[in-house]
Amino acid sequence: MFENLSSKIEKALHTLRGKGSITDINVAETVKEVRKALLDADVSYPIAKEFTDKVKAEAMGRNVISSIEPGQMMVKIVHEELTKLMGSEAVDINIKGQPAVVLVAGLQGSGKTTFSAKLANMLKTKKAKSVMLVAGDVYRPAAISQLQTLGQQIGVPVYTEEGSKNPVQIAQNAVKEARLKGLNVVIVDTAGRLAVDDEMMNEIAALKRELQPQETLFVVDSMTGQDAVNTAKAFNDRIDYDGVVLTKLDGDTRGGAALTIRYTVQKPIKFVGVGEKMDALDVFHPDRMANRILGMGDVVSLVERAQEQYDEMEARKIQKKLMHNEYNFEDFLSQVAQIKKMGSMKDLVGMIPGMDKLTKNVEISDDAFKPIEAMIGSMTPYERQNPGCLNGSRKQRIAAGSGRTIQELNRFLKQFDDTRKMMKMVSKNGGKLPMRKRR
Length: 439
Prior knowledge:
The chain has helices at about 5-15, 25-40, 45-60, 70-85, 110-125, 140-155, 165-180, 200-210, 225-240, 255-265, 285-295, 300-310, 310-325, 330-340, 345-350, 355-360, 370-375, 380-385, 390-400, 405-430; strands spanning about 100-105, 130-135, 160, 185-190, 215-220, 245, 270-275, 280-285.
C-alpha cells in the first residue's frame, strides 16, 4: 500500500536531514520533490500544488524548535497536512433506525458486492447487529449468486426476488421483511455499469429517493487512479452520498485516489478494503494512513487487530503451560491461527514502524506458515503434545511426511525451543524481557 509514494516522499524529506535550519532554498527544493511524488501517485496537479503550497507556508512560518531538526519538523508538517487532506478524523457509519438502510453504489467491478458482505460481517461481529443483505443488481445473475454465496459464508440472510426486474420494489420489500423480523440493518447492493450513464444514475437516484437510506456509500476501486476521483464526483453530484469506500488498497495502487477523493467531493472516506477475506475491511483513519505513507507504521491498528483476536482465557492457559514447561506444538499452532486471522502478513508487517524499509524488496507471503503447519501436521498427537520426544527416526518420518528436509525441520525445532524459552522468561518477568547482565 502506497509503497512508491512513501519511498518518494521519504526521499524528498531526506533533503532537509542534517541541515541546521529551514531556509527558502532547502524548503523549496523539498516541496518540489514532494509535489513530484504526489503527481506520480496520480494526484491531480491543482491539488498537489495547493497541498505543497500549504506545506511550504507552514514550514516558513513556523519557528523550528531548537531540539528538533528541520527534517523532523518538515515530516511533522507534511504529516499534519496529509491528515487534513484525507479528512482529519475517522467518521463512523450511521446505522440509527429500525432497520437502518445502507445503500451501496458504484461502477461495475469496483467491489460493491464484496464490500456489502464485508460490511455485513463487520456489523454482525463487531457491533452485534442483525443484518440482511439485499441483491439489488437485477441485471447480472452472477452478482445475485455471489452475494448469496458470501451471505452463506458469513451467516447473514440475503433477500432476493426471482424474476423481478424492479430493484426499487425489491429493496422496499426487503426493508418490510427486515422490519417484521426485527433486524437492525439492511444493506442494499445495487447494479453498476462499466461507465457512468444516465440509466444507472436514474436507477440509483430512484433507490435513494424511495428508500430514504440512513447511509449511502460510494464504492470505488482505488487502482483506477484519477478516474476514481472523477467517478466519485459524478456520483456525488447526482445522489449526494454520505461517504466513500476505497477497495483494493492492498494492491499495486499509486494512492492518488485515497489522497484526493475526500478533498474533491468533501465527503469522508469511511472504509478501506485491504484484502479478499470477509474480515479484510478497515475503518479509515486519516492520521494512521498519513503515518503509513510517511513510513511510520500503524501500531494502533496493529494492536486493535491483535485485541480482536486475543483470547484472554487461552492466554492464561498458555502462560500456565509455559511456567510448567508444558508448551507444545498444538499450542504453537493455536497461536499461529490467531495471527493469521489478523490479516495478510504483508499488511501486518507494514504496520510496524520501519519494517516497510527492511522488507521493501522482500516477498512476504501469506503462506509463510505453511511449511511449519505441514511439519506439525505430520507429527502424531503424542509428538505434538511432547516436543522432547523427537528422536532421529521420528524426525526422518516427519520430514518425509511434510515434504521438508531434516535441516529445515531441525531449524524449526530450534526456533520453537528458543521461542518457548523466551516466552517463559517474559512470562516470569511480568511481560518484560529480562535485563542482560553487564560484563
